[in-house]
Design goal:
Helix content is 40%, strand content 25%. It folds into three domains: 69 residues, Arc Repressor Mutant, subunit A (Orthogonal Bundle); 102 residues, Periplasmic binding protein-like II (D-Maltodextrin-Binding Protein, domain 2), CATH 3.40.190.10; 98 residues, 3-Layer(aba) Sandwich (D-Maltodextrin-Binding Protein, domain 2), CATH 3.40.190.290. Helix 1 crosses helix 2, helix 1 packs across helix 4 and helix 5 crosses helix 9. The model has no long low-confidence stretch (mean pLDDT 86). Strand 3, helix 5 and strand 4 form a beta-alpha-beta unit. The protein is an alpha/beta fold and 293 residues long.
Length: 293
C-alpha cells in the first residue's frame, strides 16, 4: 500500500465522487478509478458504496480513512522534520488537550512562539483523557494536556504550576445552590452529570468521587463540559467539573460550587518517552519548559 494511493483514497472520500477527486488530484478519472479498485483488491474489502453519482464509505472504508489520516500525518511530519533542519523553522505541532483553564497559559506560550516562528502551525485536538491519550500513544499528537487522575505509560510530563478546583455546576434553582460549596455527602443520591471515560464503570466513578456506589446516581455522562452544562441548566443534574471552565457559560442561570474541603486537580503537559520530535516540536517543548520552570 503506497502513500500516494492513500492520498487518492482520502480525496475520493472527501469529494464523494471520482470526478471531483480526479480534478482535485490533477489525474484522469480512469486512472483514479483503477487505483481505488486496486486498493480494494489489495485489502480484500469494499471501501465505497456507489449510489448514483455519490461514493460513500463502507464501515471498512471509514476505518481506513481514520488510519490513512494518521499515517499521512506522521509521514508529512517526518518529511518536514528533515527539511527543517537546515532551513527556516516551519511545520506543524499537534496538541491533544483536555478541557482546562490552563489552556490560557499554554496559549500565551503559543502566542510568543508564533511571534518567533510564524510559519509554525498549531493543531489542537480537544477531548477527554481517553481520546487524548490514545492519540498520544498512536503518535498523532506531539503533546497532551491532561487533568488528573491519569495513568500514562512511558510518558514524561511537566506539572503545571496551577491547580484547578473541582466542583459542581448546578441550575440556580437546584437546592444545592443555596450553599457556597458542596461536600461529598451532599451529593449522595443526587443526579450527577459526569465526564465519560471508557474504562470507568459505576464502582470506579464511586471510588473516584468518594461516594458509596449505593448512593451514586449517574443521570448522564458527557465528554465536553459545554454539553454537560446545558444538561445542568435544564435541571437534569449537577455537572462535576473544574472551576476554570465555567466562564464560557451564562452564569445568570448556573452556579459553580467547589468541593469542601478542596479537591484540587493537577494539570500536566505530557509527551511520549523517546519520541523523535520535529524541529518545531523540539523548540516548542523547550519553550514550555522555560515557561513552566
Amino acid at each position: 500500500m503506497e502513500l500516494r494511493t492513500l492520498r487518492y483514497f482520502l480525496a475520493v472520500a472527501r469529494e464523494e465522487n471520482m470526478t471531483g477527486a480526479a480534478a482535485a488530484l490533477h489525474i484522469s478519472q480512469p486512472a483514479l478509478s483503477y487505483q481505488i479498485a486496486e486498493l480494494e483488491k489489495e485489502l480484500g474489502r469494499q471501501l465505497f458504496i456507489r449510489t448514483g453519482r455519490k461514493m460513500l464509505l463502507t464501515e471498512e472504508g471509514m476505518f481506513l480513512r481514520s488510519r490513512a489520516e494518521e499515517i499521512l500525518s506522521i509521514s508529512d511530519e517526518t518529511v518536514a522534520a528533515f527539511q527543517n533542519e537546515d532551513e527556516e523553522v516551519y511545520g506543524d505541532i499537534y496538541i491533544g488537550a483536555a478541557e482546562s483553564a490552563v489552556m490560557h497559559d499554554l496559549a500565551e506560550v503559543i502566542s510568543q512562539f508564533k511571534k518567533d516562528y510564524p510559519k509554525v502551525c498549531f493543531h489542537i485536538y480537544s477531548g477527554i483523557l481517553d481520546d487524548v491519550s490514545e492519540r498520544l500513544n498512536r503518535g498523532t499528537v506531539d503533546f497532551a494536556v491532561v487533568v488528573e487522575p491519569f495513568t500514562l505509560d512511558k510518558c514524561e510530563m511537566l506539572t503545571m504550576p496551577k491547580t484547578e478546583r473541582l466542583g459542581v455546576v448546578v441550575h440556580k434553582n437546584n437546592p444545592l445552590a443555596a450553599g457556597k460549596s458542596v461536600t461529598v455527602k451532599d451529593l449522595y443520591d443526587q443526579p450527577l452529570i459526569l465526564t465519560n471515560r471508557v474504562h470507568l464503570n459505576k464502582d470506579a466513578y464511586a471510588d473516584l468521587l468518594g461516594i458509596p456506589a449505593g448512593h451514586l446516581n449517574v443521570a448522564a455522562t458527557g465528554n465536553l463540559i459545554y454539553n454537560m452544562a446545558v444538561l445542568a441548566e435544564h435541571g437534569i443534574g449537577a455537572a462535576v467539573t473544574l472551576e476554570g471552565l465555567i466562564g464560557q457559560f451564562d452564569l445568570s442561570s448556573l452556579v459553580f460550587l467547589p468541593f469542601e474541603p478542596d479537591r484540587n486537580r493537577r494539570i500536566a503537559f505530557v509527551w511520549k518517552q523517546y519520541r523523535p520530535f520535529s524541529r518545531p516540536a523540539k523548540l516548542f517543548l523547550e519553550r514550555v519548559r522555560q515557561a513552566i520552570g
